[in-house]
Amino acid sequence: MSMFCFQCQETMKNTGCTVNGICGKKEDVANLQDLLIYSLKGIAVFRSAVSLEIRNQYADECGELDKFIAESFFSTITNANFDRNFFIKTINKAIELREMLKKKVAEFGMEVKFADHDAATFTVTNENIDAKAATVGVLTTENEDVRSLRELLIYGLKGMAAYIDHADRLGKTNKEIVMFMEKALISTLDDSLSVDEMVGLVLECGKFGVDAMALLDGANTSTYGHPEITEVNIGVRNNPAILISGHDLKDMEELLEQTKGTGVDVYTHGEMLPANYYPAFKKYDHFVGNYGNAWWLQDKEFASFNGAVILTTNCLVPPKKSYIDRVFTTNSVGFDGVQHIEEAKKGEQKDFSKVIALAKTLPSPTEIETGSIVGGFAHEQVFALADKVVDAVKSGAIKKFVVMAGCDGRQKGRSYYTEFAEALPQDSVILTAGCAKFRYNKLNLGDIGGIPRVLDAGQCNDSYSLVLIALKLQEVFGLDSVNDLPIVYNIAWYEQKAVIVLLALLHLGVKNIHLGPTLPAFLSPNVIDVLVKNFNIGGIGTVEDDIKNLIG
Ligand code: SF4
Ligand code: SF3
Question: Rounded CA gap, 126 and 104, in Å?
Answer without folding.
Answer: 27
